[in-house]
């Protein structure tokens, strides 16, 4: 079995049409058909159902397609890693982070790395936790900063700090003096993270509100913590944000109240590939870990 057999198989599996697949591969149809037959004979498994009307994957073919796609993703990751090793400490280093991390910390990290590795091009991306995990598994980033939990055999995670929660509100439109008064906010409009963007975080916020005895009226949603803070500042609702954000926001129009009665926290973690032992990655992790927020 050769890589070309797998590439030909994927092309047919994606198109489900031998003519279109052959055009995509820039070969004629008869050789393509022969390659697929050779592959099926070697595997001793029928991968496609073929007749005059259609081409479809068998159950074995569906399984094989999923595994081959994973194989090619791993090959791409290995190729990228090999290239980085050859470049030593030059080239590109990509860091993804969630928007609810205080930006000054990210700036300090880049300054630290730039002093050590002046010829490296550092790139930053604000990305949700779920997309960061996919990107790291596929070798598209070298390091991520996420809100746990994480379940991936390909990723190593380091707990950075545990973050609590704080109520955030516009001081002119909401008057609240203590946690004991939070229940009176049940009729207020809430601004939350979009559930598809941060499902675990969204569920935690609902759990928080349930602890204080109400279901929030979520009218506005956003995928960026700064957008949420701005909506609150504009009087369009109240929200619950990580205490890390509250501690670093000095806007006089916005009030923050840490929710101390509820014992709920989120783990903020650094993630890297389990196969990554580069100097840059070790330096980045080493710089951040002592800085417990």
Automatic annotation (TrEMBL):
PROSITE patterns registered for this protein in UniProt: HTH_LYSR
Entry keywords, A to Z: DNA-binding, Transcription, Transcription regulation
UniProt keyword Protein transport, yes or no: no
Keyword Transcription regulation annotated: yes
Domain HTH lysR-type, chain residue ranges per copy: 1-58
CDD domains found in the cross-reference section: PBP2_LTTR_aromatics_like
Alphabetized InterPro entries for the sequence: LysR_HTH_N (IPR000847), LysR_subst-bd (IPR005119), WH-like_DNA-bd_sf (IPR036388), WH_DNA-bd_sf (IPR036390)
Domain of life: Bacteria
Family of this protein: Belongs to the LysR transcriptional regulatory family.
Stated name of the protein: LysR family transcriptional regulator
Natural source organism: Flavobacterium hungaricum
């Amino acid at each position: 079995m050769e890589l070309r057999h797998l590439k030909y198989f994927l092309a047919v599996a994606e198109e489900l049409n031998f003519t279109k697949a052959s055009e995509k591969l820039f070969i004629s149809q008869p050789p393509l058909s022969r390659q697929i037959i050779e592959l099926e004979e070697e595997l001793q498994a029928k991968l496609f159902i073929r007749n005059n009307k259609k081409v479809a994957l068998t159950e074995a073919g569906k399984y094989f397609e999923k595994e081959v796609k994973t194989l090619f993703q791993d090959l791409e990751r290995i190729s990228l890693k090999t290239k980085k090793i050859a470049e030593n400490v030059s080239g590109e280093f990509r860091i993804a982070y969630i928007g609810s991390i205080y930006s000054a910390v990210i700036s300090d990290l880049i300054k630290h790395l730039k002093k050590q590795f002046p010829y490296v091009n550092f790139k930053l991306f604000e990305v949700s936790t779920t997309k960061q995990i996919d990107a790291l598994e596929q070798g598209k980033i070298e390091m991520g900063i996420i809100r746990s939990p994480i379940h991936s055999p390909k990723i190593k995670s380091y707990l950075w700090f545990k973050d609590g929660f704080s109520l955030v509100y516009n001081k002119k439109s909401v008057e609240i003096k203590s946690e004991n008064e939070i229940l009176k906010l049940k009729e207020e409009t809430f601004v939350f993270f979009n559930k598809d963007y941060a499902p675990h975080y969204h569920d935690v916020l609902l759990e928080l509100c349930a602890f204080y005895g109400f279901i929030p009226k979520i009218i506005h949603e956003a995928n960026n913590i700064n957008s949420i803070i701005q909506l609150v500042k504009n009087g369009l609702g109240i929200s619950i944000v990580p205490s890390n954000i509250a501690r670093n926001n000095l806007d006089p129009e916005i009030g923050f109240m840490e929710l101390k009665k509820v014992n709920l926290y989120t783990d903020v973690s650094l993630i890297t590939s389990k196969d990554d032992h580069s100097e840059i990655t070790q330096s980045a992790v080493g710089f951040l870990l002592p800085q417990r927020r």
